[in-house]
Q: What sequence folds into this?
């Protein structure tokens, strides 16, 4: 099917040139966890902090992606896999431009996390589990989703109808039931500095 394609990757300006221009190393920080665990809150605050430090950062968020690039996808196992595949490929493109990417997606199974890692590459990926129990997330309920689930208005909801697997290879776990947003961001900021040293 793809025998007529002739990629020009080998003739394009290399990633190293982009990183040199930006004076930073590209990489993906993949934050995952239940809805309401704090992924987006941490990513939003960290985006501003890194920007203030002179870093070029792109934030990819689940809700935003599903209203544009992936608006044709639902929440079946096949659609979830395609959702993550597309996001990982997009994140990889940003990394090839020397950018830091903050990707905030539920990513409920180890198979999906492995898929993202395979596409992006372990050296360019910092896998961050934003940990909070279903009960805590339901109490927070920032989007009103848990109430809709309770009222029977939402199907295939992660943590209830659809399972969420505990991670097997997270590089960092942020337990947001005990950490403040500031403390979580400080831990993640340190991990980014260590993982993506230029």
A:
């Amino acid at each position: 099917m793809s025998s007529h394609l002739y990629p020009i990757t080998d003739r394009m300006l290399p990633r190293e040139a982009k990183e040199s221009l930006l004076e930073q190393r590209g990489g993906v920080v993949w934050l995952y966890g239940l809805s309401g665990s704090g992924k987006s809150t941490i990513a939003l605050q960290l985006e501003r902090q890194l920007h203030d430090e002179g870093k070029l950062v792109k934030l990819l968020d689940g809700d935003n992606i599903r209203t544009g690039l992936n608006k044709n996808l639902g929440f079946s196992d096949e659609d979830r896999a395609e959702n993550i595949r597309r996001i990982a490929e997009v994140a990889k493109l940003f990394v090839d431009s020397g950018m830091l990417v903050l990707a905030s997606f539920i990513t409920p199974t180890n198979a999906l996390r492995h898929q993202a890692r395979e596409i992006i590459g372990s050296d360019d990926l910092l896998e961050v589990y934003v940990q909070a129990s279903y009960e805590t997330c339901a109490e927070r309920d920032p989007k009103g989703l848990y109430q809709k689930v309770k009222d029977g208005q939402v199907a295939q909801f992660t943590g209830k109808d659809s399972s969420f697997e505990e991670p097997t290879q997270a590089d960092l776990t942020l337990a947001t039931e005990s950490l403040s947003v500031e403390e979580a961001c400080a831990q993640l900021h340190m991990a980014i500095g260590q993982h993506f040293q230029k």
In short: The domain at 27-195 is CATH 3.40.50.300 (Rossmann fold). The chain has a mean pLDDT of 87.
